[in-house]
Amino acid sequence: AEKEQQEAIEHIDEVQNEIDRLNEQASEEILKVEQKYNKLHQPFFQKRSELIAKIPNFWVTTFVNHPQVSALLGEEDEEALHYLTRVEVTEFEDIKSGYRIDFYFDENPYFENKILSKEFHLNESGDPSSKSTEIKWKSGKDLTKRSSQTQNKASRKRQHEEPESFFTWFTDHSDAGADELGEVIKDDIWPNPLQYYLVPDMDDEEGEGEEDDDDDEEEEGLEDIDEEGDEDEGEEDEDDDEGEEGEVKRFG
């Protein structure tokens, strides 16, 4: 019996090796498809960026409406991001070796840079690393040094933690292989930023509809009270005692 089990284990191992070989082959073919479509996407991304440039505050609105990104934003971060005019995510041509995120800014009171970038690299042995633009802060405007003095809404809810500034992300290279913000921007926001930009409009429309319904209900309620009031006034003319009962009925 033990010999049969051992033979079965060896056969399972052989089959597993075949499965692994197929998985590797599939990964190689999927990568080729991704590389092909990465190139095909580029003109559409370019066209989209040109259209987004016509909408003021598009990117700061998009970031504020994204639950994970907004949790990293203090009030001054939001102010600085109002000068953000364009975001570009570029996957390296072979896809597997990494990507770069570029943030384009107008002239602003916070820093001298026109472009802030962060790159993520995966070397041949699979070790991740990242590097980014050094932010040239204007005098007294370094938001990464003010983070201990400011708190955003999300952090106050999280047991009064002191949040780091959004801009500390450009100096944090401690865990390049699991950079949550970079991955959120690349995989969630960049494919379709419009869905996050439009979030508040949808909420406002729903809110307005609810308010209208409430107003209608209030008006109907007032009409009912007026009708009762008219009836009660008629009863008062006939009998003062009944009128008093009518008043109790109306407000009781």
Automatic annotation (TrEMBL):
It comes from the Eukaryota. The keyword Cytoplasm applies. Residues 133-145 have a biased composition (Basic and acidic residues). Gene3D superfamilies: 1.20.5.1500, Nucleosome assembly protein (3.30.1120.90). Residues 122-171, 200-252 are annotated as: Disordered. GO terms for cellular component: cytoplasm; nucleus. InterPro entries: NAP-like_sf, NAP_family. Signal peptide: none annotated. Keywords: Coiled coil, Cytoplasm, Nucleus. Residues 201-245 have a biased composition (Acidic residues). One of its GO terms (biological process) is nucleosome assembly. The keyword Transcription regulation does not apply. Residues 5-39 form a coiled coil. It is found in: Cytoplasm; Nucleus. Pfam families: NAP. PANTHER family: TESTIS-SPECIFIC Y-ENCODED PROTEIN. Belongs to the nucleosome assembly protein (NAP) family. This is Protein SET. It comes from Bos mutus (wild yak).
